[in-house]
Design brief:
131 residues; mainly alpha; 5 helices; 5% strand
Length: 131
C-alpha cells in the first residue's frame, strides 16, 4: 500500500513538473494558476488509465508500435486534460507534437529521479539494514 501511494505521489509530482516545463518552454502552451492543480490531477489520472490500455492495444494489434505507447498515452492525456479543464491550453499542431515529447521526456526523467530525492533517507536506511 505504501509503495502504491509513493508511486502515485511520484507520478503526480513528475507530471506536474512536466506540465510546468512544457508551459515554460513552449510559447503556445499555457497553464492557469489554480487550474494547474486540477490539470495536473486530471492529466495524471488519465495517464495512469490510458497508458496500460494503449500498451495492451499496441501489443495485441500492432506490436511494432509498443515502444511509442507512452507517447500516445501522453498525447491522449494532454488532449483530455485540455478539453476537460481550463487550466491547460495548447494551440497549434506543432505545439501539440512538441508538448507531447517535452511532457513525456520530463515526466520520465522525474519518475526516475524524484524517488532518489524524495526517498533518499528511506533508501539509505534500507541500505544500512541490508549491508
Amino acid at each position: 500500500m505504501i509503495r502504491l501511494v509513493a508511486t502515485a505521489v511520484i507520478a503526480l509530482l513528475a507530471n506536474a513538473i512536466a506540465l510546468v516545463v512544457g508551459a515554460q518552454v513552449l510559447e503556445d502552451m499555457s497553464l492557469d494558476g489554480l487550474g494547474f492543480v486540477i490539470a495536473a490531477l486530471i492529466y495524471t489520472g488519465v495517464a495512469v488509465l490510458a497508458e496500460p490500455l494503449i500498451r495492451q492495444m499496441a501489443l495485441k494489434n500492432a506490436p511494432a508500435l509498443l515502444g511509442s505507447s507512452s507517447l500516445v498515452a501522453t498525447l491522449v492525456s494532454l488532449v483530455v486534460t485540455s478539453l476537460v479543464t481550463d487550466g491547460l491550453q495548447i494551440s497549434g499542431g506543432t505545439t501539440w507534437v512538441l508538448a507531447t515529447v517535452v511532457v513525456w521526456a520530463v515526466a520520465l526523467a522525474g519518475r526516475l529521479l524524484l524517488p532518489l530525492v524524495l526517498f533518499k533517507k528511506a533508501l539509505s536506511n534500507a541500505r544500512d539494514r541490508n549491508g
